[in-house]
Amino acid sequence: MKASKLLHTRLRVNNIEESIKFFTTILGMEVVRKTQSPRGSTLVFLKLPGSDEEIELCYYPGSGKVYVPPDLMHLAFEVKNLEQFREHCSKLGYQFSDGPTVTSNGTKFAFIDHPDGYEIELIERNQ
Questions:
Q1: CA dihedral sign, ordered 71, 26, 35, 3
Q2: Structure confidence by residue, pLDDT tens digits, 10-42
C-alpha cells in the first residue's frame, strides 16, 4: 500500500491576508478555495496554474503566534529567470534573503522569506 499523490502542504500563518497577498503577488499562485475548519481555523488553499499540488494556509489564532525557526523547512518553486524574478520581488518590497547561488551544473537558486519566516526557494534550472 502507498499514497498515490501529494495533495497539499499546510503552513500556519499569523496574518491570512498578508500571506495570501505574498503567495499571489510574489509567486503568482491562485486562491482555489476558502473554508472554515470545525475547530475554527480559517483555511485558504492556493496553487499555481498547471500544478496539482496546493498550499493550505491556516490561520488559527487560538494556537498562539507562529514562529518559524531558521532552516526548519522550505518550499521550492521553479522560475524561468532568477534575475528577472529578483527584480519582480524588489518592486514589491521583497529582497532575496540568500543567493543567488550557481550549482556545478549551472542551476541557479535563491531564497526569499515569507512574512512569518518560511523560506521560499526559487530555482532557475539549467536548460
A1: negative
A2: 999 999 999 999 999 999 999 999 999 988 899
CA 44 to chain centre: 13
Interatomic CA distance for residues 53 and 8, integer angstroms: 6
Peptide bond into 69 cis (omega under 30): no
pTM beyond 0.85: the answer is: yes
Strands 98-102 and 42-47: unpaired
Per the structure block, which three cell numbers stand in for 23?
503567495
Annotated catalytic residue, options 18, 53, 121, 124:
121
Asked if 121 is an active-site residue, the reply is yes
